[in-house]
Design goal:
heterodimer; A: about 160 residues; mainly alpha; 5 helices; globular; B: about 120 residues; about 55% helix; GRIM-19 (chain B); transport (chain B)
């Protein structure tokens, strides 16, 4: 991701040749950064195995991972898409509220806790996906559940 | 003739010390107050740093969870462009030659621009 991408700004110079027929097509996710950030922990909760598979494949095949891990990559994308679709189906209003709040607040998660709590509750009730931050210290309230957010400009 | 002599009982004391009023609290009180205020400040700072660490952890994990997804999408795009390049080369030159002496995929540095724009 760090390398310079062979893309020009002019749309007419973008290579639009589709993938060859023998590689199965997969619908891309099509979500922008704020919805992805908002749904990231749910994606992580449901798709952890697929994600780990993909990253393991990438690690084990240095130099050829772009070609040899396409299958795992399609699984990752399909799984993430299923999460986004489920969230859209069950919690559309809460989801929208949260990611629009993130968009309005420089994508700082701590500015949008009330919207996030509503979204987390709805997602947990409907999809049984819970937001858990790994490796957070034991015996403390996880930072996304603290009623007072020290860095929030307004409110909790 | 009587001489000038000090008055009986001597002169009164001469005031040579400055007589400034000692305003404000005692130094011990001031020092204690300063230590208290600074302790409180460092306590609040520590709390803020801890919360900041947790927020950074949250942000990092949110990125970790969507990294495979972004990588997969980008890989598909790169593969698509790579095959398009190979096809273009085949069409133009009739051969497929790699510029590198290995099978590894190398991210293209240069992109071919069309000589005439179709659209």
């Amino acid at each position: 991701m760090s390398a310079r991408r062979p893309v020009f700004n002019q749309s007419v110079l973008t290579d639009s040749t589709p993938l060859p027929k023998e590689i199965p097509a997969v619908e891309e996710l099509g979500a922008s950064s704020a919805p992805l950030l908002s749904a990231s922990f749910f994606i992580g909760a449901r798709c952890k195995d697929y994600n780990d598979d993909f990253m393991q494949c990438k690690t084990e095949k240095p130099g050829r991972a772009e070609f040899d891990c396409l299958k795992e990559g399609r699984r990752v994308t399909r799984c993430a898409k299923s999460v986004i679709e489920d969230v859209n189906k069950h919690c559309l209003t809460e989801f929208r509220k949260h990611w629009q709040c993130l968009d309005d607040n420089n994508q700082q998660l701590w500015q949008c806790r009330p919207a996030e709590w509503k979204l987390n509750k709805c997602v947990f009730d409907n999809l049984k996906l819970e937001k858990v931050i790994p490796d957070s210290p034991k015996g403390e309230i996880p930072v996304h559940l603290r009623p007072h957010q020290k860095y929030a400009h307004r409110g909790p | 003739m009587p001489q000038d002599l000090p008055p009986a009982g001597g002169y009164g004391p001469v005031q040579y010390k400055r007589n400034l009023p000692a305003r404000g609290f005692r130094p011990a009180v001031l020092l204690t107050g300063m230590v208290g205020i600074m302790t409180f400040g460092f306590y609040k700072l520590g709390g803020g740093i801890r919360e900041h660490n947790e927020l950074a952890r949250e942000k990092m994990w949110s990125r970790i969870y969507i990294t495979p997804l972004l990588t997969a999408e980008e890989d598909r795009d790169l593969v698509r462009r790579h095959y398009a390049d190979l096809a273009r080369e085949k069409e133009l030159l009739g051969t497929q030659t790699s510029a590198y002496n290995s099978d590894r995929y190398v991210r293209p540095t240069f992109a071919v621009t069309p000589s005439k724009i179709l659209k």
